[in-house]
Design goal:
By secondary structure, the protein is an alpha+beta fold. The chain has one domain. β4 and β5 form a beta hairpin. It is globular.
């Protein structure tokens, strides 16, 4: 189990937020997670989706927002060494805003998958 603070947050478009309203939607969702401790990435995914759904229903003029399915990448330098699981939050209003939350684990032959150092 990992805490929310252990996930790496980054923005697309060279880190530039193109739509402030959509950025607020994402920040609102993150700040209002019921319990950010000991969450798996799947639980974070579900809680963010629930919060964004409620937010969009309450403020329809702010645009819409959805979260993509979790994607898995298992190669580094052509070898299945790291496993990166990520999902993106897409907002559509006056612009397009994308945010990804990424969790990377390293594969250890004896212990299975462990959090990346």
């Amino acid at each position: 189990m990992k805490t929310l603070e252990q996930y790496r947050f980054y923005q697309s478009n060279a880190g530039k937020i193109r739509n402030r309203t959509e950025a607020h939607m994402v920040l609102y969702a993150i700040c209002h997670l019921a319990d950010p401790s000991d969450l798996t990435i799947e639980q974070v995914h579900q809680q963010l989706q629930d919060e964004l759904t409620r937010y969009c229903a309450a403020y329809p003029s702010h645009g819409t927002c959805r979260i993509s399915d979790i994607q898995v990448s298992t190669t580094i330098m052509g070898k299945p060494h790291l496993v990166t699981r990520r999902f993106a939050i897409y907002g559509r209003g006056r612009g397009i805003y994308t945010m990804c939350i990424e969790e990377t684990v390293r594969k250890d032959a004896s212990n299975g998958y462990l959090p990346a150092a």
